[in-house]
Automatic annotation (TrEMBL):
InterPro entries (alphabetical): cNMP-bd_dom, cNMP-bd_dom_sf, Env_Response_Regulators, HTH_CRP, RmlC-like_jellyroll, Tscrpt_reg_HTH_Crp-type_CS, WH-like_DNA-bd_sf, WH_DNA-bd_sf
Gene3D superfamilies: Jelly Rolls (2.60.120.10), Winged helix-like DNA-binding domain superfamily/Winged helix DNA-binding domain (1.10.10.10)
Every HTH crp-type domain range: 146-220
Sorted UniProt keywords: DNA-binding, Transcription, Transcription regulation
Alphabetical list of SUPFAM superfamilies matching this protein: cAMP-binding domain-like, Winged helix' DNA-binding domain
Gene Ontology CC entries for this record: cytosol
Name recorded for this polypeptide: CRP/FNR family transcriptional regulator
Amino acid sequence: MPKVCRACEARHGGICSVLTGSQLAELNKHSNRKSIDGGTELVGQGENIGTYSNIVRGVVKLSKMMADGRQQIVGLQFAPDFLGRPFSHESSLTAEAATNTEVCAFPRAVLERMIADTPELEHRLYDQSLKELDEARDWMLTLGRKTAREKVASFLHLIATHVDPDAGDGCEFELPLSRADIADFLGLTIETVSRQMTKLRKDKIILVENNRHVIVPDIENLNEAAGND
């Protein structure tokens, strides 16, 4: 197994976890680690797809643009998610690094050849697709039925559980999106987002430092504020 793969988060929790040592060595020959500054576009909507990536560190923002130029954030991806849609030649979304991000990129042809030869890899990608579908349905409920307070709490809970999935009772993280982007993602105004963040802080459900650093003393209290079971 290549040395660089041993400590890689995607090796243990992402699609690479189902590959053998020899397959990892083969993929590593063609892979390229990239550090990407926040705000940098990884792939644009309508662009030809030449590479796929594993997210090794950071958060990637997915957005969709309408014909008249209006844009909507439709999802977030975290390490060790797989970025791309196998066997698609054109991207249907724009992917942008929401934070400083690191990815491991490899040619589309190489991975698609491995998918054909490795049923476990195909199953892993299928599982991630179903997971993303479930999360999209949950988010439809959030946007369609939850109050503004529940929406903001749901967003914070989403970040908390993905950035630090092994956290115990509490956790802390840097907000990966600006207030404007959070408002766009939740279908709220910037003022409403700020107001609900302040209320959650006053209720001691969260603590906020330097405007972007969020501390969650009790993840279950945040979960309840989000209106989850």
